[in-house]
Each structure stands twice: as structure tokens, then as C-alpha cells.
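Narrative progress, year one. The postdoctoral researcher (J.K.) led the effort to move from monomer predictions toward full complexes, under supervision of the PI. The following entry was the first complex the group processed end to end, covering 715 residues in total.
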Amino acid sequence: MSTNPYFNFESEPTMPELMYREALNQALAEEMERDANVYLIGEEVGRYNGAFKVSQGLLDKFGSARIIDAPIAELGFTGLSVGAAMVGLRPVVEMMTWNFAILAMDQIVNNAAKLRHMSGGQLRCPIVFRGPGGAGGRLSSQHSQALEANYAHFPGLKVIAPATPADAKGMLKAAIRDDNPVVMFEGERLYAIKGEVPEGEHVVPLGKADVKREGTDVTIITWSRMYYFCMQAAEELAKEGISVEVLDLRTLRPLDEEAILASVRKTNRAVIVEEGWVLAGVGASVVDIIQSKAFDDLDAPVERVTGLDVNMSYAANLENATQPDAPKIIAAVKKVLYREGA
Amino acid sequence: MASSYSKELLLDMYRKMYLIRRFEERAGQQYTLGKIAGFCHLYIGQEAVAVGPAEALRPDDYMLSAYRDHGQPLARGSDAGMVMAELMGRGTGYSKGKGGSMHIFDIEHHFYGGYGIVGGQIPLAAGMAFASRYRNEDRVTVCYFGDAAANQGSFHETLNMASKWKLPVIYICENNRYGMGTAISRTSAVPEIYKRASAYDMRGEPVDGMDVLTMYEAVKDAAEYCRAGKGPVLLEANTYRFRGHSMADPATYRTKQEVEAERKGDPIPKLRAYMQKHGMAEDSVFETIEEEVKALVDQAVKFADESPEPSLDELWRDTIVEEGEEDVRPRERVLGQKVNWPKYPSGQELKVTWDLEPREQAEAADKKAGLIR
């Protein structure tokens, strides 16, 4: 049985169950074993074993040249690693949270994302920037934000946000092997979630969405932590006889247009659930893809469920009200189905 | 009094400085003709800062710079025509016309780019030096930046790491006394940039940036220091740009008298005077070099002028590396010349043998600090 705090999956495990953080740890260890060019740098990744324990035990295994405790200087150690990637190392840069990475954004978007273009194809930048994103835990405005839309905006980056432990492992492995800069959003509230994770060589290709739940009446498109609220909503709706398909985008740049369109053409209705803010969100681009390429297949306008257009509050009730949740998703699904009470 | 330098070395320095000067003059001219657009930051006056180090380094040492970046690659042997083509936005430029004046890249000559964000390249250089240590290679990285960049957080964050981890990187601050139009003394609590190294327990020195031999010696010495694993070096090259910040800048913030006075320190006639004083070359030798360089620059302008613009499908290339895609070798692509492309050991061949923070050392430090483990 899963110990998922959001949703209990009732299926018998056939593979080892790992926490999301353990799956990431496994991916890091396996890739570092496989390729000595891979190193991990970040605040507290070494002797502290990781602020969120993703790098637990890696310092003992790989030594201080490959598991590097960085000073609290995000721009500095991020830029340093971009430089190392320019000459062929394959750094993994851990952001203690993506909130702090705002300080390093210049290095990610002005250097890593543009090096190949500005050099006319002479350089490549094989680097992974990863760390927890998303809201929650009553941390107020500066620590509680879903920032993936910012990075999805930039050509030259790949942006991924896996929801499950298995995807976390497989996508981190793929990201480390990718020759492009990859920005990886993990869920700060997902690290303790358990799920089945294939052992050893389990690589999930970047750029491919995944139908996590098949359905016929409506498609919910989502990623990262919101996936669990969507699954919860889908279960609830199933009790009312509404069949929901849940499409987990997993990669936000490039978007898997084919998977989005295939699902919408099947269900003819779509709800997009995004933790971040409504304006210029990733979901806005998904709507654009649907309306420009599958307009004739739609039976209702596409709905978006997003974080409210405000900064995050500390107070528990305000924090909860700011974020999407299962009831809001259920209401949106009913709206696109023209059901009463929506 | 005999000079301790060989005639060949000094003539090569002269030729390179003269090449940069003529190239930049022609670039300025092409800008006024509307053939070069965007920003075009000329290097005129600062030639010694690029040429001294280029001669002092090994060909496989890494180098990178800011947006005033035409001089360094020319000093390292880049093709003048391909640099000019890049300035003119032609498909034959080093970056196929996608980078322009501020982003010259010539990986074959280990020139890892010009960068347009003030101070943005400073951490990159530390990372390249870090990679050298990681792979147990003894090459050094030289990073140019301007005086104004020394006030950026990237400078301070990077010097701290570079010194703590003893990275083989030489930072050359080209102090031309103005951050765009603002005198460095108006924006800096400590306008002597080299002094800031002391805050990070690293070596910092002022150097006469108007003297190519002083630059040569300083970088030779710094490179030895770096290769010996002693850590990074900050050199402050005191220099002067004879022109504005960019071609768009008439430089009205400086007095005529100031510029006239600085022009008397022109590094090119200075080297020539040195050689003549030591009886190392006749006038005719310099004249021959100057004629050759003028012809080379003429040819570079002609090459760029006659080159086609990049094809529109280039828009969709060089953003994301596709699987199995090869990196672009510009000289091979444009001139059909076989090039030496840097090859790095694969993860299988590489053995990482050093410690950034050896366990015993870390534990001893903890004990000393009274931390119980």
C-alpha cells in the first residue's frame, strides 16, 4: 500500500517501493557510477546529506570532489557549473529550493540556455539544475511558489517536473545523459511520497507526457504535485459516473503536443491544473495548442484551475485557499461537462 | 644593453597588436557605413592586455572575455575574416552570424566566448578551471572582465570559491577607468580592483596594461603559480580605451586633454621604441609587418562583405542539441581547413583522484572549531 499523503493507490506492489527522494538518490548514484564526468554541487549536499536528503550517503560513496558543498552563493556555484559543462563535465546543480535559484537565473537563462546558439553550435552545455519547487508548508511568499513557467519560457532549456517516484528516477537519469541544460522541478511536498520504482536502468525519455489514468469524458492535464489532486478528483468523479483521463505532462519544455491532442480528441473536453499563477502560465500554452489545433474536437471551452493571482500567505486558511485542490478541480470538470452545480 | 626577449617573440607581439588596432579601426569604419550593427565595443588602446597574455599562455589554455571581445581571439590566432564576418552578421562568421560582436567564440583556439552581461562570465571561468582540476589537467583559464564587473555579485561569489578551492584561473580586470560612461572612482568604494583579492586570501596585483611586456611577464608568472596548484590570481591591468564605450558612445564624459595624455602611452609605438632602443629591428621590418597586416585586414573586410547572410533555416539550428548531432567546427565549415578540436576524456576513461575537502582535513578543522563529530 502506498503511503501517499494525497491519495491511496489500491494496487499490489510488484516492484520495490521507494520514496521520491530515494528514487532521485538512486538515479544520482547510478549515473555517477556510470560516468565520472557527473558531479553534484549545492548547498548542504555533502556532509549534511542534503537539505531534503536527496543526496543521502553520496559523499561517502563518491568523495568531496564529486559531492560538493557549495557556499550559499547560488549565482556563483551555478555559473561555475555551467563553465564546467562547457568543457565536458556533466554537473548536477542542486538548488536548495527553486526560490533561491532566482538569484542564479542569469546563469541558467543567459548563459546555459544560449551558449550553443551564441557560439553557432560550437558548444554544448550538458547540465542539470534540480531542486524542490512548489508551495506549501506555511512558508509564506518567498518560499512558496511554483516557478516552472519562468523557465519554460526560454528556448535552449528543457524543463521537467515529474510527479511520481518512478518518473523522478527515470527522468533524472535521462536529464543527466542529455546534452542540453535541463531544469528539473521536484515537488518539495513530494519527497516523502512512495511509489514503485524499477530497479537499475530505468530511463524515462524527456518530452513525453504520460496517460496516468485512462478515461473517456474529460481530460485533466497536469504535472508535478497537482497530479495527486487530479487523481483524487478523478476518483471522486468516477463515483458519479464521470470517466476522467489524467495526462501527466512530465516535461513542460518541449510540450508533448501529440499526447495533448490525442487525449483531447478522445474526450473532447479539457481541464488544465497548474499550481503556478494564471497569467502567462504553462497551462496558457496548453490551451493555445488545443484551441489552435483541436478546436473542432472541443465540446466545451477549456478550463484552467490555477493558483490564485496573489502572493502566498502564511495563515493556514489563506494558504489553502490560494492553491488548487480536488474540489476546485471537480468543479472545473463539471463545468466543462455542463453539469449542474458547477 | 641587450633585451632578454627574442626578436621573434617581440615582432609577433607587434604584429598581433597592430592587427587588433587595424582590425578595430576598420570595424569602426564598417559600423559607420552601417555594415556592422548592434553594439560594437572597440579595443583600441587596450591591445597590450590581450597580446601579452596570449603569448604567455599555452595554446590549450582556456580563455574567455566580456563583450569587448574582438582583441583576444585575434591575439590567439582566430581568423580575422571570420571575426569580421561575425560582426557583419554573415553565415561565415564564427557563430554563423548568431552571436555578433559581443559573442565571438572560437573553441578551436580555446577561446570560450564573449559575454554580454556584465560579470556573467566570471563564474564560467572558475568552472572551466574547476574542470581542469577535476580531470587532473594542468591547463589554466584566463578570464577578462572590466572594472565595473568587479562590483557585481558574480565577481565576489566566484573569487571566494576559486580561492577556497584553489582553482587554476587568472582573472584579468581590464581597468580602463570607465564602466560605460561612469568613472570607476564614482561607483567604487575601492577603485583599485586588485586589492579586493585580499578579501578572499588570494593573490592580487596591479599591472601596467599599456605595456605588453609587463602583461606578458605577469601572466607567465601567474600561470606558473596556477599550474603549481597554488590557486587563482587576480591581475588588474591598468589600461585605457582611446575610443568610446561602444561605437554608439561619443565619450563626452572625458576631456580631450585626458584622452590626449593617455594616447601618449599607446602600447604599439612603445613596443616599437623598445625594440629600436635595443637594436632589434629596422624601420623597414615594422613597415613590412604593417603592410602585411593592412592587406590581411582588407582581405578580412572583403571576405566578410562578400559572404552571404546565414540561411533562414539556421534559425532552427543550434538551440537544442539533437541526439547524435555533431558540434560545429567553424573553420572547417567555412574555410575547409582541418582543425584540432578539443577532446575530453569520457566518463569511463576519467579517474577523479583529488579531494576538494579531504575528510581528515575537514574533521581536523571541525575539531579545531570545537565541533564534536
